Amino acid sequence: MCLCVCVCVCVYAYRKRVEEVDGQRLDGVGDNQQLREGINRVGLEKVCGFWNSSAVCVCVVTWNMNGKASSQDLVQLIGRDRRFHLLAVGLQEVPRVHNDNVATLLQEALVDTHSLLGESTMQSLQLYVFGPKNMELEAKEMRIDKHAVGGCGGLIGRKKGAVGIYLVMNGIRVVFITCHLSAHAHNVEERNSQCRHISHAMFSKAMGYPYETPSHLTVWLGDLNYRIHGIGTLPARSLIHKNLHNMLISKDQLLQEAERGEVFNGYCEGTLSFKPTYKYNVGSSNYDTSYKIRVPSWTDRVLFKIDATSGLDAVLHSYESVDQIHSSDHKPVKAHLCLKLNNM
C-alpha cells in the first residue's frame, strides 16, 4: 500500500529551484521580493509508480460545511476508496452543535481502516489527520498550532485564520495548514495579507526559525475565498453550463495574485478541471439564485510545496470536487498524492 496524499505536486521542475525566503516560516506563501513564478499547474498521473515501495500516500480533503453536517455527508466525503495512508480533513464553518462530534463522526466513518492521529481546532475551523490501522507506520514528532486573523461572525462563529498539524510519517516531514480567509471579491488584498501573517506565525514558536529540520512537504487546504473576478455572473454561468469552465481560470484571483508574487509563490496545484465550488443553493447543485447571484468561484483549494533540497518525489493522482454533497453552499475538494523520499 502506498502513502497517497490527496494533494497536487510538481516535483521535477520544482526541485530545480531553491528559494531562501527571509522571515517566512512557511516558504514562499507571500514573498513578492523573490522570483515571481506563481503557482505551478500540474496534471494527474493515474498510476502510482511508488506502489508497494515504502511510499506514503495521502488524501487531503477541504470542506466549508456552512454550519451543517451529518454522518452521511462525512461518509460520502471520505469515500469508499481507502488506498491512502494519511488522511487530512480540513473543515471550515463547522456547526457549533457538532464541535465535539465531528471527530467522532469521522472516526466512525473510518473505523475499519484508520484512526485519529491528531487534531487542531479553533472554533469553527478544524483540522484532523488520520493514519492507518494495523500497519508498521507511525506518526512522530507531532505538533499543532493555530493563528487567528479575524473575528467571529454570524450565529456559528465563522472564525478566520488557520490551524495546522506537523508530523513525520515514514521519514517524510509534512505540515498541513487549513485556513479560512476573508470573503468577498473586493477583499483580495486582505486575503493576501492574511496569507502572509499565517505564513510568518504558524509553528514559529513551536519549531523556531530558521527550521532545524524543515518539512519536506507543506500543504495548504481550505476556503481561501479568492474569487473569479472580471466577468459577470451570467457569462460565467453560461461557460460553466457549456462545460467551458476552464475559460474562467484566467479570471481566478488566487492564480492572478500568485502570478504577481503576492501569495503561494512556487506552490503547486492540480488543474482546475472541476466546476467552481461556490456558491450553491443549499440542497442542490444549482448556483446561487439569491438576490446577490454571486459569481461562481473556486474558493476551496488544495496547494502544496516541496522543499527543493528534500529529495522528495511526488505524484498527484486526483484533484476533484465532491458534487454529490448538497448540505452546504460549498462543494468539498479532494486531492490524492503519493510521496517517496529518494533515499527510502
How does this model look, in words?
The strands form three sheets. Strands 1, 3, 4, 5, 6, 13 and 14 form a seven-stranded mixed β-sheet that branches. The chain is globular, with a radius of gyration of 19 Å. 16% of the residues lie in helices and 30% in strands. The chain has helices at residues 11-14, 71-78, 102-109, 188-201, 204-207, 233-241, 253-259, and strands spanning 4-6, 40-42, 56-64, 86-92, 114-122, 125-132, 139-148, 161-169, 172-180, 217-223, 268-270, 300-306, 312-321, 333-341. Residues 1-25 and 152-156 have low confidence and may be disordered.
Strand portion: 25-35%
- What is the total tally of β strands? 14
Unreliably modeled segments: 1-25, 152-156
Can you tell me the overall shape? globular
Main sheet? Answer: 7 strands, mixed
The level of helicity is: 10-25%
**End-to-end distance:** 15 Å
In N-to-C order, the SSE pattern is: EHEEHEHEEEEEHHEHHEEEE
Oligomer: single chain
The whole-number mean of residue pLDDT values reads: 84
The helix-and-strand class reads: alpha/beta
Radius of gyration: 19 Å
| Secondary structure tally, helices | 7
